[in-house]
Design goal:
The complex is a heterotrimer of chains A (about 160), B (about 100) and C (about 625). With about 160 residues, chain A is mainly α. Chain A is built from six helices and no strands.
Chain lengths: ~160, ~100, ~625
Amino acid sequence: MAWVVFITVSVLCIGSVAAMIISRNQAHNALFLVLAFASLGGLFGLLDAPFAAAVQVLVYAGAIMVLFLFAIMMFNLREPPPREKRTLRAVLTAALGIVLLAELALAAKRALAGSVSPGAPSEIAGLGRLLFTDYLYAFEITSLLILAALVGALALAGKKEGS
Amino acid sequence: MIPPLAFLLLAVLLFGLGVLAFFVKKDLLTQFMAVEIMLNAGNLAFLALAKAFGRAEGQALVLFVITVAAAEAVIGLAIIVLVFRQRRSIRTDELKDLKG
Amino acid sequence: MADAFWLIPLIPGASALVLLLFGSRMSRRGVSWQGPLAVLASFILSIAGFVRLAQAGPGASGLAKTLLPWIASGSFVTNFAFAFDRLSAVMALVVTGVGLLIHAYSVGYMAEDKAYARYFAFLNLFTFFMLVLVMASDIVLMFVGWEGVGLCSYLLIGFWFARPAAAKAGMKAFLVNRVGDAAFIIGLLFLLVTVGSSSFATINAAPAAGLIGPGLATLIAILLFVGATGKSAQIPLYVWLPDAMEGPTPVSALIHAATMVTAGVYMVSRLSGLFAASPAASAVVAWTGGLTAVYAATIALVQTDIKRVLAYSTISQIGYMFLGCGVGAYAAGMFHLVTHAFFKSLLFLAAGSVIHALGGEQDMRRMGGLKKHLPVTFPVFLVGALAIAGVPFLSGFFSKDTILAMDFAGHHYVLYGLGLAGAILTAFYMFRLVYLTFYGDPRLPETHAPIHESPRTMTVPLVILAVFSALAGFVGLPVLLGEKANLFERFFKGAFGQEVHHLAASTEALLILAATLAALAGIYLAFVFYRRSPSLPARSAARFPRLYRLLVGKYYVDEAYNAVIVRPLIRGAEEVYTHFDLKVVDGALNGSAAAARGAGKALNILQSGLLRDYALAFLLGVIIFLGVLLL
């Protein structure tokens, strides 16, 4: 049963990403990405991380992609960029990409050495305890980080055009 | 149960797709979206490993990554807006100021 | 005071340094006092040292002092060390004494020159190097002085370097000397390798000690002598000396008459042990000297520049010195060195006085009748001329006669004949010079400025030198008058390890007579040619045109050297320049620059400015990084 869910959600995720790559309309790209993030949320849930899943949907699929859509609206690009011919650059990129994938796969295989399979499910309470004890500093600093991002964005893009 | 390796390989595939997207697309905004894909692939990997080793640190880290990604998206988009205002374009073929 | 003998070279050296660094900022008066005073100090110290040696009697070992350690390489050790023995004493006295007089003379002669301080700096520097040369206790330090005087000679010949002729003459002197020095260095290296030490005592004892076989001794001695032919202007490396007359006249007097050119004679005398061990090398020395004596005298017969005559005369007289040393009469050679220093520097300085009075005229064809205008210069010049001609009782007579007597005594009759012929020629060309310059009707252009005698700073040294030229001979009286009469010989008794041949009194008397007749004959012939029948020279030249042209052209030796050696060398250098220097060296340099530029252009392609390309590089980096981590 779990496998079925897994396969479906994964296919959905990969498929929407692939569609995002193929499509040349910016708005379509963004929407496909929303779908990808949502399916990722599902995958997070399969991994016994409900909190992460919730946050993913709320923040990523919800807030960040909305930002992107606003930006797309602002730029209002009509014509899609011209199709690029096959060049050395493309071949090189493809080759390097494949090498990267191979290396990462190998790394993944190795990373799992000495692991407990399958591991015990974790609890949210335990996560909360971690956040407020071992990782308290990181937690507080991220809130500062958000503040900084807020102020920064205002400072950067807050000026009126032509001033 | 689904083996964590499957999730890891999925994450790897997702990351590769993100890289591909980055190189295929020709405007800044979409390339930025590709970066987000790569980040998410990383998150997936973290959670898979957290499950595999039975530690909650992975989930904590994912939380932080998402937060930072959000902040980064804000600033990044602000910069793209500025670039657009300057150059009237966000097509990377046309933004060649780094040319040496 | 004699113990401070090691200061003798150093005082002029220090003065030279001061003048080089600060001379342009010092006052004229300051320089005029400092330069000569430094040499005076050395002269006084030399006298003190000499007195000490004379009192110690023959067989005294002399003073020695080591100043600083220098080379210690394996078993070869040498230090900066000075020695003051009899030979050094005589040389030091000549250098500082005559040098002092010339420094004083220069104050007047160079009074109007702009580079006054530089002149005295170089003159002091020369004195320093010459004294190092004669007071070195080993051959390597002597060579330092040898090279140093060569350098100063170049600097002083080319003193008026803005004049192309002077600059070329300086170069010629240096380069010709270099050829001689190359041979010298090879000989020196042989010496160091076989003997293992550079000290003179060891080297002179080496043949007897069996360290050097007769063949090797000959080789080394000849190589060293080739160096001497360069420094002392003998055949074949004499060609620089006539050109060196481009320098100021006091320089010609000091360097090219009294001191530097005698360095070769000093060297041969210093290494008498080595030369004595090789009869072949000694023969080379003697024959070179004898032939040069006659050869140079023939050229002097037809020269028209007053200084050129004196230059060739110097070459000829040094030939006499080598003639003496070559037959083993080192003391006789040294005696002639001393007397020659007196009368030749006198002649040069007096000629300088003439030139100075005439405002720069040096061509004898435009002189004449100067006797009444130069009341001091003329008599002293005459004394010098009589001395060099070998007129009895003046110094030159005694020294030349001793050399000729030694030749005869050693059964070197051909050499004796050469010497005698040279004596006749010497008297002739010398008095030719006197008659042309001082007697007869004046041949100066009418519009010439009035002629007056030179200032006292110039004439006083002249008079002093004239006195010495006249009287110095009396320290070397012929043995005819008794064993004790020859003070010079006695001073050097045993110094050279050579037995001196003795002649029967009657033979010696005959030789003296012959020498006197030769001198008088020469003077009389000059009188005939240049006073009684003034048209005779021109007619004789017309009778033997080819011979005359050969002599005027100095046997075309300069032209021969130029064609055979100089021009091919220059051509070769030009070839090397175009094919190697321009193409290879510059090519490599420009090539590396071009390569850098090319690499830059190639790498420039990577900097496209496109974000995508930079991301590609990034990706590559990540892959490599991961690869390293995984492997």
